[in-house]
């Protein structure tokens, strides 16, 4: 069995991607309020800062900063996933099960990247905000409602027309070249 290596950094900042098992599902945006509640309750019990986030139909990206002395982002993600799954089931949505009877709403694993410096942070924030355009969900970043982009605009950190129109800009924020 593959052993996944996580980089546990006390007080660290992490870029995370969490994906549904069914990549054709729209359950995350269909139940965005339930995801927001799951995150809010988890933050109340296990504090962390959300530096940037976007929710797409089948996955979400988040930059999470943990408090000093704390490196436990896996528990936070587990709680968010569990609470969201419970809420979706309570809302009447059927959730498939794996052969071992485990609920199969989410992929078992997730992507984690430790943010190294300010440039790395900015690159990942850009990637998060541009992601709905990358997935052809909208033509303009500001048209996607489930994004911290709108908070960045309200705070004056980004202009409302940031990244322009997708038809004019085929940017690959955060993507490796070559």
Described by strand count, sense and barrel closure, the largest sheet is: 4 strands, antiparallel
List how many beta strands DSSP finds: 4
Taking all residues together, what is the mean pLDDT? 90
Please tell me what the overall shape is. globular
Superfamily (CATH H level) name: Transposase IS200-like
* Count of all domains: 1
Examine the coordinates and then state which fold CATH places here, giving the name of the CATH topology: Alpha-Beta Plaits
Provide the CATH top-level class. Answer: Alpha Beta
Helix-and-strand structural type: alpha+beta
Spans with pLDDT under 50 lasting ≥5 residues? none
Cα distance spanning the termini? 30 Å
Instruction: Give the helix proportion (percent range).
Output: 25-40%
The helix/strand series, from N terminus to C terminus, equals: EHHEEHEHH
Give the helix tally: 5
Any idea what the radius of gyration is?
Answer: 17 Å
Beta fraction of the residues?
5-15%
Side-by-side strand order of the widest sheet: 2-3-1-4
């Amino acid at each position: 069995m593959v052993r996944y290596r996580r980089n546990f950094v006390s007080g660290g900042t992490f870029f995370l991607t969490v994906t549904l098992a069914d990549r054709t599902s729209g359950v995350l945006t269909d139940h965005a309020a339930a995801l927001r509640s799951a995150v809010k309750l988890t933050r109340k019990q296990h504090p962390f800062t959300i530096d940037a986030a976007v929710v797409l139909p089948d996955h979400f990206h988040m930059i999470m900063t943990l408090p000093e002395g704390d490196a436990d982002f896996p528990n936070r993600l587990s709680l968010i996933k569990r609470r969201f799954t419970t809420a979706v089931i309570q809302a009447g949505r059927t959730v498939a099960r794996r052969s071992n009877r485990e609920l199969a709403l989410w992929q078992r694993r997730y992507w984690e990247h430790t943010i190294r410096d300010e440039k790395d942070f900015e690159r990942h924030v850009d990637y998060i905000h541009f992601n709905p355009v990358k997935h052809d969900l909208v033509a303009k970043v500001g048209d996607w409602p489930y994004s911290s982009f709108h908070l960045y605009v309200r705070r004056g950190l980004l202009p409302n027309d940031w990244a322009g129109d997708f038809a004019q800009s085929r940017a690959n924020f955060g993507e490796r070249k070559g």
